[in-house]
Amino acid sequence: MQSILKTLFILLCLSLMINTVKSQNCNCSEAFDQTVQTYEQDYSLFQFKVTDENRKLYNAHTALMRQKAMQQESVTDCKQVLEQWLDFFRDGHTYIRISAETELNSEKIKISEKRFKSDYKKLAYHENPLLGIWTSKAYTVAIIPNPEGREKEADFVGVLLESTNENWSKDDVKFELTTIFGNRYNAKFYMGNHSPRTTTAEQQNTQQLSFRNNIGDWTKVWPATDMANTISEVDLKFNQFHFSEVEGIPYLRFPDFFTVEPAYVDSIVKANHDKLIAADFIIVDVRDNNGGNDATYYPVLPYILNGPIKIPNSGLWMSKGNIAQFLESSGLAGKPLEEFDEEEREMYDYVMSLEGTAFFQNPEYDSTYEPDTIYSPSKKVILLTDENTVSSGETFVFRANQSDKVVVYGQNTAGIIDGFNGLTKNIGCFNLTYPSSFRANDVQENPIDPYGIAPDVFVDEDVDVLSYSIEHMKELIRQEK
């Protein structure tokens, strides 16, 4: 049975990449009902998000959103209703995307580079550093104020000037920006197939505009600016994994845990090993880290930990729908029950007996992890976090902060960690993604969602946390001597 359980857990994890059940109906009311059914039955944290204490509130919210869904005709408007319904759970691992086969953006705004440059001078566009000509990979756009009379609400629009992507042509709308505060924006970005994706963006400096969710960075190419000469390496490479030094202090930047492989991180760490162990302290920056693969940060742990840490054992929610995905990935789908061999039948019977339960491969609450080698066990570590540190970024913070060497500076992390391993279900117009796993077997009693992991030293987002943390750490070390 032990080998069967191990096989079961591996196959269940593999099944998390499978899309299931496709529907052809794009009626918003029916899509809403399918969405509710999916999340109520298959979302691992639903049973903790909706309890006897708030069930009436949830039922009223669902009834209200169902009424709104009945009034929607466009796929985009329907998606907004579904997303508002999802907001009840306050879980960033639950999201809805429009299927590529459905409503695609075809809007065009007539523009020419010559006219844009003329307007730039006449209309004082220079007063806003966002306005100008920007490029990213296959695309070059002019970012302009939202034209008067345009039906879609936004503050700025990125209109295509040229592209090497044959699916795009001049005057196509590539993205829309609506100001949140300062240089931060809510964004609707149109992907390579013209399907819309909701995200956020931030203008890092006069030459760099960054979109979240791995969409990428844009570089301003006109008008030219010499501001780049005054921008630090940390700011210029903020959205890239890199090693640098700040005032001679080793600095490791992780914008996520998926764009580089663990082997590459390991090579960078080894190349800078002497600097990392010689410094009084090092800095690890996971602000705006939107998660990925936990293995990515393991090469850094020998420099962060000062002993063993506890890692809670995770589990899987065995709903009927999730079990169906496991069986699909196991190769048993479509095979008549009478043709199962003894081991297959034993596994099948066991899996079916788990329906409606949480499956934990390891019955113990947690496991112990300790690197083979620990470097500079008495040296300090600055760990920078903010409200955009999510998912595996938070897992890293949770584990690293068990070390006495680490001091966490910044704001609470996002609180998107209790449920993970997203399954995706296609219901025709939409792809529904929801967590199928539990971070630990006590997420109901000791949740991290939705408030996140608090820093040791809170630093307001308007304060330069990098400079402050360095000053604070130097004073801390001085007082401890």
Automatic annotation (TrEMBL):
Residues 250-457 form the Tail specific protease domain. Pfam families: Peptidase_S41. Gene3D superfamilies: 2-enoyl-CoA Hydratase, Chain A, domain 1. One of its GO terms (molecular function) is serine-type peptidase activity. The keyword Signal applies. Keywords: Signal. GO terms for biological process: proteolysis. Residues 1-23 form the signal peptide. This is Peptidase S41.
